[in-house]
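Hi there,

I know you've been waiting on this one. I reran it after we fixed the sequence typo, so this is the corrected version. Both the input and the resulting structure follow.
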Amino acid sequence: MSLVTLLPFIVLIGAMFLMTRSAKKKQQAAAQMRNDMQPGTGVRTIGGMYATVKEIQDDTVLLEVAPGVHAIYAKNAIGAVLDDAEYNRIVHGDDDELDADGTVVPDDASSLTAGESTDEDAADDVAKIDLGKKAEDAAPEDAGTKGSEIKSSEVKDAKADGEGDAK
């Protein structure tokens, strides 16, 4: 066999070696991260739930998912160990950068509508739109179809009875 025919196989084996090596490095880094967990650390599970570590066993972790609510998870279910600042930003909405700027977020939307008219004033300003046709607009007289003329009140009555829904 020539070197030309063996070359694709050599490249394939080398690529597989590199892929498995990088995958092993990622697994080792994840295992090291899980081993470095301490009680009180904020974590994200692989399912996307944020919790605080309460106890660590050999293969399991006791997580506090809400105040007073505890759940036992496998250590492999921990997707990321978060630092305190990131955990507080995500879970509690604490953001030190915004506090330093003096940005204030209102608890309700009342400040957004300050100085505008009330709902009653707005209701008076809205134009009334009548979507029903007038009896004289239903069909032109020159069309020659006097039997097809339908009054708008008959259409409304038919819809109220449920006849308009059947097709």
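Quick highlight: The chain has two domains: 1-36, 37-145.

Best,
R. S.
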